[in-house]
Every structure is written in C-alpha cells, then in structure tokens.
Design brief:
The protein is α+β, with helices and mostly antiparallel strands. The chain has one domain. An eight-stranded mixed beta sheet has the order 1-6-3-2-8-7-5-4, with no helix packed on it. About 15% of the residues have low confidence. This is META domain-containing protein.
Amino acid sequence: MGSYARTATAAAVLVLAASLSACAGPASVADSEYAGVPPEVRDHWDTSRPQAEPVVFVDEDGSAHLVTRGSSSCPLIPTEFDSDDDEWEFALGQDQTQPCTDDLAPMTYVFDDAPEPTPEIATVRDVRGERVQVDVVGP
C-alpha cells in the first residue's frame, strides 16, 4: 500500500469516527443503569398516568436510584446530579438523533454512594427545563 493509500485510509477512519461521535446523545452521569423498576419503588410510582413523574429511591447501601419513564429507543438520561446541603437536583437529557418509540418504558439509573443527608424531596429538571419536585423514597 502506497503512502497516498495509507493517508486516504487514515483520513477515512478519522471522518467515520467523527461522524459516529456526532450522533452520540448526552452522556449519563449515573454509575450504572438498567431497564425496569426496583421492587421497592413499585408501590410509590403511579404508572396509570401516561407521563408518570420520576421517582428517587435510596436503598439500604446508600445508593440513589432515579427511575424515569419514556421511550426505550431514546430514554431520558440523567446528565447532571447536583447536591447542595440537603438538596438534590437531577437534570434529564435525551438522545434526539434518532426516532423515539412511544412505548413509555421504565429505566433506572443508580448513583453509588449518594451524598448525605438524604433529602425528603428531590428536584428533577426535564429536557424542556421544567422542574418537578418528587419525594425521595428510602429505607
């Protein structure tokens, strides 16, 4: 392979990598995530409403779980988690680079070692910037 061919191949790889990264949506600040709802949250979450509000749950190990409900193909993603004294605020983003399905699937985002003290209420800011106050459920 000649010098020109290697240069052209390298340039093509760089263009492909740049185009793929441009399609990526917002990054999650959670330590882990999974599809579904923790059993401890089911009794506190009104899924009968089409747009169920998020739920924040703190488990016995001190991890915070943020449960949202939205499209499974472009779920709501926690892009910020701020804590100040006894206040928590989560900001949600969404990957809008692809069509979203209308299936309202639950997603749970886990934040290990949540800051203390655990507040009674957390604020969740949605993709439009609107804030909703939700109870923090815990042991």
